[in-house]
Amino acid sequence: MTNRTRVVFLFYIKRTKLLKNGEAPIYLTIKVDKVRAELAIMKSINPDLWSVEKNGATGTTKEANDINSYLNHIRLQVNNHLAALRDEGREITARGIKNSFLGINPDEKRIVEIFADHNKNVKLLVGKDFAPATLERYETTLLHIQRYIQDKYHADDLPLTRLDREFITGFEMFLKTNRSCSHNTTMKYIKNFKKIVRICFGNGWIKLDPFVNIKLPLRKVDKGFLSEEEIRAISTKQFSCERLQHVADVFLFGCYTGFAYSDLKGLTPANLVRTEDGQIWIHAKRLKTDNDCHVPLLPVAKKIVEKYSNHPYCKKNNVLLPVTTNQKLNAYLKEIADLCGITKNISTHMARHTFATTVTLNNDIPIESVSKMLGHSSIKMTQVYAKLLDKKVGKDMRKLQDKFEPEKPKINFEINLN
Prior knowledge:
By secondary structure, the protein is mostly helical. The protein has three domains: 96 residues, no CATH class; 92 residues, Orthogonal Bundle (DNA polymerase, domain 1); 173 residues, hpI Integrase, Chain A (Orthogonal Bundle). Helices cover 49% and strands 11% of the residues. It contains 16 helices and eight strands. Strand 2 and strand 3 form a beta hairpin. Helix 3 runs antiparallel to helix 4 and helix 8 runs antiparallel to helix 10. The longest helix has 26 residues. The radius of gyration is 32 Å and the shape is elongated. The model has no long low-confidence stretch (mean pLDDT 88).
């Protein structure tokens, strides 16, 4: 005689996730042997009215009676699904009972499941076809999708049949309100999800592409850059705090080389290459795009490297510079800006913009060369950084002054010899 699977249904409330009206959502735990599944039943209650012993509402008020009646209805429905699974000879699992109650076909493809499988494949190809940052973006997008489905649909996953325009517009609203994402960040997450939807459409798993006629425009954002005077203010400032001096040097190195934070953090002495003419270059690959970056070291950047060549942190970790976390760098840069009288909102990525604009383009370095040093795959990407200063415009226009200057009137001198 085989042992019968032990199934337990238990209602409970989440006191840590109170709704705006102060009520706690009610959940059903489905326990099969030692495995559990959680199910939101779309009902809430005043926490003071909930009885753990009774596994329901306490009291005889109309509200308590209505809630207990609803719980009995849910319990009956779940039991009916359990009985149907047994009649069909299906394996009894907590997730199986939950899926049956929610009307989810176990053989039907689901959104989160497909997204997770996609990310597993990307992870296997990191370092070959994908950069680590690409995997990180997909993982973050998946996390937002999971939270969105839980928040709006009260489920862990949804069948592909639920993918429609309403799902996408709802996801956009969720990112902007619930997750406080900016417009451009929201668009990037949706574009990541769009790739997953296109895979589903291409494989014939969905009949219609829900992204048809949905545009995902990015808004132009002026990320700013430092002027020559502002760079000089930081480089000539003597910081009494060693921590701030390290951050200032790392930021200045980014201004003179154009490397982003993630690339700066990974630079090692092996990235330094001396050419036949004696010039020292940095040869590295961008983590974001895996494109090659070859940048000759300017004298000021070379001095910074030499300054930290024997630094304990650099020697221990075999890196060129003592780069801390991006969050700490950005926080310390705010202090540095205040001490140097700079009113701009300085960040680590501003160093890259400063290299592209102030250090190179505004000193007549061709945009093709700048694009190569930044590791861009096209000049169009570099044009985002190509914000010309008035100084450069004035310098260029002075070349035309002689050409378009009006002729001066000729003065005739008459000499009377009589």
